[in-house]
Amino acid sequence: MEQDDCYQSVTETKYDCLLFDVDDTLYPMSSGISTECTKNIREYMISKLGVEEEKVPEMCAELYKDYGTTMAGLRAVGYDFDYDEYHSFVHGRLPYDWLKNDHTLMNLLQTVPIRKVIFSNGNDAHVAEVLSRLGLEDCFESMICFETLNPSKTSEQPENSDELPKTPILCKPLENSFIQAFKIAGINPQKTLFFDDSIRNLQTAKSVGLHTVWVGSSHKTDGVDYSLESLHNMKEAFPELWEGAVDKGDVPYAEKAAIEAVVALSCQLRLKLSGLYQNEKDKRLKHYKKPYFMVWFTDFAGFSGST
Ligand SMILES: [Mg+2]
């Protein structure tokens, strides 16, 4: 048994996929975005669905507790509405400018040599906006969002056969949402580390075989393998994920790319200038060409590291 374990650790990596929730996971709850989202949901229930204002807070809490999202709960108890309209009212009006580029997280995600996938209950447009604001739009191989699991804009109300009505919406923490996500993204849960801020999502995730990380907490409980106050601490908590990574130094990826672009332009300009010198056959200028190129190569190597 010990020999088998040893052999496995040498020949295989423990994880081949990192699966991430978005809201309150890629950015902290302290951003205030979630509070604004809750306000919008309550306003939608009052203004669009005609729910009495004084009943909304308790109803919201109950539906969220029973169904994972208020939206899934509203459909379960019989409210019918267009999903796109709901998302544009609830998410489309969020103060996205509160989210800023996160260079630290971008650098971590860009350097970890493991495929990364998004799994969010949010709609496509919301997830894309959040990733763009955080500067993380190029960090993930694929995304499982609301529309991925719920392709039609409305869905049939299922027949209710037990005391708790079923929802036609497929979303976390329903077990089937994870099973479908695995199929769509080609995920092996036994080799995947899942990051989420919702304990209920993590508990289902654990039951279907994922390794789980509770983000935004320092506590551990049932269904949680690891806890992490912030994704900024990923490398300290899971240094093994970076084994085999190419060292890009401390320069954030975007800044590095910008520097390399400037150096490349400089290179082109100087090559053109050198061509002009040759055409003019100005021996005096040619006299300075050689040391000029030596300086450029020194600059290029210094800026871009291993080239
Ligand atoms: Mg979340």
TrEMBL record:
Pfam families: Hydrolase
Gene3D superfamilies membership: 1.10.150.450, HAD superfamily/HAD-like
Domain of life: Eukaryota
Cited InterPro entries: HAD-like_sf (IPR036412), HAD-SF_hydro_IA (IPR006439), HAD_sf (IPR023214), Pyr-5-nucltdase (IPR010237)
Designated name of the protein: Hydrolase of the HAD superfamily
